[in-house]
Amino acid sequence: MTTNDHASDTIEALFKEQRRFEPPAAFAARANAKAGIYEEAERDYLAFWSSWADKLEWSAPYRDVLEWKEPFAKWFVGGELNASVNALDRHVKAGRGSRIAFYFEGEPGDRREITYAALLADVCRFANGLRERGVKKGDRVAIYMPMIPELPVAMLACARVGAAHSVIFGGFSSDAIVDRVNDAECSTIITADQGWRRGKKVPLKDTVDVALAQTPGVERVIVAKRVGDAVEMKAGRDAWWDDVIAGQPETCEPEAMDSEDLLFLLYTSGTTAKPKGIMHTTAGYLTGVTATHDLVFDLKEDDIFWCTADIGWVTGHSYIVYGPLCNGAVSVLYEGTPDYPDKDRLWDIVERYKVTILYTAPTAIRTFMKWGVEYVQKHDLSSLRLLGSVGEPINPEAWMWYHEHIGGGRCPIVDTWWQTETGAIAIAPLPGITTTKPGSATKPFPGILADIVDEAGKSVPLGGGGYIVLRRPWPSMLRGIYGAPERYVETYWSKFEHMYLAGDGCNRDVEGDYWFMGRIDDVMNVSGHRISTTEVESALVDHPAVAEAAVVGKTDDTTGQAICCFVSLRGSNPGSPELGDELRKHVGDKLGKFTTPKYLTFTQELPKTRSGKIMRRLLRDIAEGRMLGDTTTLADSSVVAELQERAKAEAGKED
Ligand code: WT7
Question: Which tens digits make up the pLDDT trace of 600-626?
Fold first, then answer.
């Protein structure tokens, strides 16, 4: 690549990784995906996707596979179906009602086995309760809950009555609830009294109560009892879950939904402060998660599947709830943290339920590495046969550690690249076919047409890096940003003509394998959470002492990236460690504890270009302690020296 090529500025193609792992022969012999699947899907990608849609249960058949009015897609046009019927009823009807849907394990150690029949009954009772209280087709319902069985029940009950759910991660603060509930005009919030996290009680209902002062559109709140302490209940508005389901029948007529009816909204950070309500519709989404869950995880009848993600993120929507249930899988649902009561909790669970497929995140894997292999070795992990990774690029060391210590050297690893927006896995190995390489997500899923392009939108030949784009629609693609069609076009379909812009940097090696390099824009990825730098900056500037702030991600061994803030204060305030702590807490309070900045440096001024744009690249270099590049476009270059000194001092304290 040439040095004046912009894409090569942001991504360097340095392929040092030479290790390769062929699919084990025994694994390949019984794999769901057979050789030839890529060619077959390429010959007719619409036929490929419709073969998966045809595995769903429809109450009215679809006429056309795709109607594409770029960039607006309609998949399986004219069809009617219900997501909860596809997740539950059809398995029960097929005589599989006594099959376990979830092995639930609560953080305090309580356990429940929930069959498909029991889950269907729970969903129907709750759906009847929702209907009786006026929740109807076309409504939006916010869900702010811990990882307890009532969470998937609430989601599926919404789907049954035709209301779109908007799950808000239980770690978010009340401000985040306010923004999301108001943006989606939710009429109902479903929550719990409290949740368990690392042995402590998380005050969910109290947090919702704070939000409710600023969400005038909310008519009703339903509260599941998880912990049991008293919480405030406002008469006429708040109801206990148990009262909502009391006396309700265990059957409930499902709403017939159009293929393109909204199934859910899920908010994700963008480069501006306002989170985007990503829209997913019914048939295409279910088709995408069904196909990918079956083929990428090579799902078999006797598998015990465990995705450790939180249902508050898309990974949990697609690979705890909709994908596994549509495929009739047996899954584990775990409420808590991996280090409670001790750092071997995950391995204890794998051993107890004889988990065969484990899907987790690189940030978790790096944490396990730090804790030490002795926690792993206490347990028998021989049931495992396949491992998955998602959320951020997995570094080869972590991949190898995962392979050796968790997979016992025998389990293929599927590194799966996708986004809230793609709805389902888009780039990943098919474990019976693909030769894997530590750190590479390998190849686009059958039917997905990906490419790497340069700044001009020109395809970069194999061996080079640039922007990852998708060149044709796919069934589980986002249908838009709720209430902001222009922002949808502008964010994803404007930079390059006829291409979906994912916003990630990516290299593709000479064999056509994809190596992801992180976001090209300014979104940080902290422990797999996508956090907008702008949102953190806004939260800082919200504090009365702060004049200006610039936020960048700094590489972090454990969390992938850590939040690093440069703050200039109002007046002549030089700043103090106390004020630093106060600002960190302020950010955590505003956006949720997991956004609490790790590094915070005071500076008189931020480095800006002459046109007044903050020089982020420079701040990133300073944060990483790298040599400085060309700074001649700075308005005041003395700022840089000062900033660099302070960043060094700050990093020293952390060590
Ligand atoms: C962003 C999407 C996909 C579910 C969880 C996150 C990064 C995700 C990988 C991977 C490299 C990855 C990308 C992507 N990402 N998976 N296997 N390798 N990067 O969903 O919050 O929408 O974040 O996560 O940067 O764009 P999300």
Answer: 999 887 887 655 557 777 888 888 887
115 C-alpha to center of ligand 1: Å? Answer: 31
The mean predicted confidence, pLDDT, of the chain is: 91
Tell me, using a 6 A CB cutoff, whether residue 441 lines ligand 1: yes
Determine which residue's CA is closest to atom 7 belonging to ligand 1.
392
Pocket probe for ligand 1: among 169, 359, 390, 436, the residue whose CB has the most ligand atoms within 8 Å is 390
CATH number given to 83-255: 3.40.50.980
CA distances from 91 to 55, 57, 227 (A): 12, 10, 32
Please state the domain extents for the chain. Answer: 25-80+265-518, 83-255, 543-654
Identify which of 145, 142, 206, 130 has the alpha carbon closest to the alpha carbon of residue 179: 142
CATH 3.30.300.30, applies to 543-654: yes
Q: Is the pLDDT of residue 111 over 50?
A: yes
> Which fold, 25-80+265-518?
Rossmann fold (3.40.50)
Q: What integer pLDDT is reported at residue 574 of this predicted model?
A: 87
Distance 93 CA to ligand 1 centre (A): 36
pTM: 0.85
For residue 93, is pLDDT > 70?
yes
Domains 83-255 and 543-654 agree in fold: no
Name 18's Cβ contacts closer than 8 Å, sequence gap at least 6: none
- Please indicate whether residue 310, judged by its CB atom, sits closer than 6 Å to ligand 1: no
* Cα dihedral sign, 14-15-17-21: positive
